[in-house]
Amino acid sequence: MSAALRSPSPRLAPLIAGVAYFTIASVALLCSRFEGGIAFIWAANALLMAELQTSETRYWPRAITACGIASILSTALFGMGPWAAAPMAIINIAESLIVAILCRRFIPVHLSDGSRRSLLVFIFALCIPANIVAGTGAALVASVFTPVSFGASWLQWYSGHILGGLVCTPILTMLLQGQVSEWLGETSGRKKLEVLCLLLLFSLVAVHVFFFARYPLLFLLVLPLVTIAFRIGSLGAAASIVLLALIGGGATMTGHGPIALISSDIGDRTQLFQLFLALSFLLAMPLAAELNGRRRLFQTLQASEARYRAIAEHSGDVVLNISVDGIIQYASPSAAEQIGCAPALLVGRAAEIVVDPQDRAEVNGAHQRALARPGDVQTVEFRPAAFTDGADWCEMVTRAMLDEQGLPTGVVSTIRDMSRHKARQRALQRVAAVDTLTGADSRWAFLEKLDQEIQRVARGAQACLLLIDIDHFKSINDRYGHGVGDQVLSSFVERLRPGLRGGDSIGRLGGEEFAILLTGADIQRASMVCERLRDMVSERRISTVGCESVIVTFSAGLVELKGRADRAELLDAADKALYRAKNSGRNCLRLAA
C-alpha cells in the first residue's frame, strides 16, 4: 500500500535535512577517506534520495539547497577542500536527482510499497545512470585535487555510493513516509516481540561472526536474514541490512571479522565488505518484495473468494466452476432449484450434461472462446437437458479464471432461467408478425418468409411472388371514410384466404398493398391462382357496416423467384409488373419481364 507524498514544513524540514546530511557526510569523510581521496563509505545521499522520493516536488528546491550547502561545508572542512566543495556538491545533488526523477517516472507507487517493480527500478536508477554519471564527474574532480587516480576514485565512489544508497534509502524512505510508525501502531504485541527477538538474534549472530568467530562464518548470516525477510517483510529486511552494515562495517574498519583476515589494506577490505553487504541486500530485499507481493495477492484472493462465495451461495442464478476440459468442479446450492439436480451430483461430471444435445456444440464453443480470450465474457442461450424442471430456455454467461501467470485454469459460469423472457419474446414476435387490422402477416414477417423461400428456391424449389394493389382504394376512403376503408381491407384478406393453398402466405406491405408468396408453383400455375383470386374478389360486393356494399378489384404483378438474386430485385420486378397492370386499365395481372 503506497503512502501519500509528504508536505514537509517549509522552514524546519530543510534545516533538519541539511543538518542530518552534514552530520552523515562528515562522519563518512572523517572515517573512510583511507587514501586521501573519495570516502569509501557514503550514506548522506541516501537521505536526500529518500527526501525527494517521499515529498512533493514543490519542496525539492528547499531540500536540494539545504543538502547542497551541507555537502559544500562537509567537503570543505573534512574532504578535498574548498575548491572541490562546490563541484562535489553539484555531483551529489545530481546523483540524488537522477534516482528520484527515474523512480517518480517509472514507479506508480513509492519504494515503501515493497513491490518487486519498485525495488528493481530503484536499483537500476541508482546503479546505472545515477552513479555512472555521478561517479565519472566525482572521479574527474578527485583526480585533479587528490593524488588518487581516476580509476581508483571512480571505483571508490561507485562502491561507496551504491552501498550507501542500497542500505539506507529503503529504511529512510519507510521512516519518512511513516510506515514504521504505522507498523508499530497496527502490529500486535506478540508480533512486535517476535520481530524484536529475530533482530536481536540476527545482531548476536553478526557480532559473533565479525568479532568472536575463529573461522570465516559469513554464511551463518544467511539463515536469520532470510527468516527476517520471510517473517517481517521489507521493513525487517531493510532493518537487518542496516544492522549488518553497522556491525560488520565497524568490525571491518577496526580490523576484526572474517574480511579482516585478508592480507590487504583497509580500503580493499572495506570495498570487499561493501560487496558482501550489497549481495546481502540483493538477497534479502528482493525476497521480501516477492513475499510482500505474494502476501498481498493471497489477501486479495481471500477477499475475492469470500465475496464470490457470498454471491454464489445466495444468488438465484446457478454458479458453476468448470475446468479447462469441461468438468464441473463446483455448483452453487441454487442448482437444485433452478436445474433440478443437487450440486453434489453435478460435481465431477461434464458441464454439457445440463444442456440439450442440440445446443451442446454452441455451449462448448462459448467455453472454448472464454479460454482463448480470457478478458472477454461469453454469453450463450441454450435449451436445458430433459431432467431440468420447469425451464425451457437458459442463458449462460462464462468468463475464464486465470492463475498468477495469466493462464486460464478454467471458467466460472452463471446460468439463468430465461423461460419467461423467451415466452414474452415469442409473444411479442407473434404480435409483431401479424397485421392487427387484416390478420395478414406484417411487413417484416412476410419479408422474413420471402428470404427463407429465396434460400429454398436456391436449393431447387419453386415459388412465385404476387404483388397486389386494391384498385381505386383512395376513392373508397374519400367517399365512405377511413372506417369503411379499414373494413374493406379486412374483408379483402378474408375473401382471398380460401383461394390460398396450405403453404402460401399473404402479407400486408403497407396501405392497400399486399403480397402473396405462392410456394411450390411455377409461373403458369401461379398465374392461374392469381386469376382465381381475382375472380373471387370481384364476383361479389364487400358489405360494410352502415354503408352500401363496395365492389373491389385488384391489380397484380407476378414474378418467379427462380433466377432472382435477392429480395430487393424480386420486389422491384414485381412492382414494375404491378405498375404495368395499373396502366393497362387495372383489374388485371401482368408478369415480370
TrEMBL record:
It catalyses: 2 GTP = 3',3'-c-di-GMP + 2 diphosphate. It is an enzyme of class 2 (transferase). The chain crosses the membrane at residues 12-30, 59-78, 84-107, 119-145, 157-176, 196-222, 228-251, 272-289. It comes from the Bacteria. InterPro entries: Diguanylate_Cyclase, GGDEF_dom, MASE1, Nucleotide_cyclase, PAS, PAS-assoc_C, PAS-like_dom_sf, PAS_fold. GO terms for molecular function: diguanylate cyclase activity. It is a multi-pass membrane protein. SMART domains: GGDEF, PAS. Keywords: Cell membrane, Membrane, Nucleotidyltransferase, Transferase, Transmembrane, Transmembrane helix. Residues 304-374 form the PAS domain. Pfam families: GGDEF, MASE1, PAS. It is found in: Cell membrane. Residues 378-430 form the PAC domain. Its EC number is 2.7.7.65. Residues 461-593 form the GGDEF domain. This is diguanylate cyclase.
